[in-house]
Amino acid sequence: MHGHPPGAGGALFTRLSPYEPWEHVLRRAIPDLDLADHPYDQVRAERLWRAEDWLLLEEYTSRRLGEDNCAVVQSVGSSGDGGVDVVAKSPGRHVIAVQCKHYNQPIDATTMKVFHYDTTAGWEDTKVWRETFTEPPRHRLFVTTNTFEPTATRAAQRAGIHLVDATILAVWMGFKVPLNQLLGIERW
């Protein structure tokens, strides 16, 4: 398999994939995936980058988690959200906390460390903790339309935060492959 997804503009995936082609993301996560069973939704994937809209990224992330059989509790960030944009319960009933960033530059370590704090020691300051879940999130996801600086990647790895960069995001949005499969998350 080579090239770009059926119906996808080549320029989009060239821009989105600075270090790992989308085919590798799919093949690493699901080696026997038949793309005929997963038609590519070019409109949804490309709209995120054309719109440059942080709210749209949060809405699409919420919608895709719902399509992945998660129960979305908080679909977008708001005042008093404590730094957590999207919150859901996985099919295994685990709390998922998500930070979404529609940035023109890679995510830095400081931003990652703030999210780590917000989903650990700062969890009691979140709206969702006050209103719904007193248990901390089991799965923490950082979603961006860009990439992560190496220092941010290392901080996330140490903290157990799953990273969704532009390439993984495009595959998740476009092919509708469940995110836990793309990221290799067990006990979802």
TrEMBL record:
Gene3D superfamilies: 3.40.1350.10. Residues 53-173 form the Restriction endonuclease type IV Mrr domain. Signal peptide: none annotated. InterPro entries: Restrct_endonuc-II-like, Restrct_endonuc_IV_Mrr, tRNA_endonuc-like_dom_sf, Type_IV_Methyl-Rstrct_Enzyme. It comes from the Bacteria. PANTHER family: MRR RESTRICTION SYSTEM PROTEIN, TYPE IV METHYL-DIRECTED RESTRICTION ENZYME ECOKMRR. This is Restriction endonuclease type IV Mrr domain-containing protein. It comes from Streptomyces polychromogenes. The lineage of its organism: Bacteria, Bacillati, Actinomycetota, Actinomycetes, Kitasatosporales.
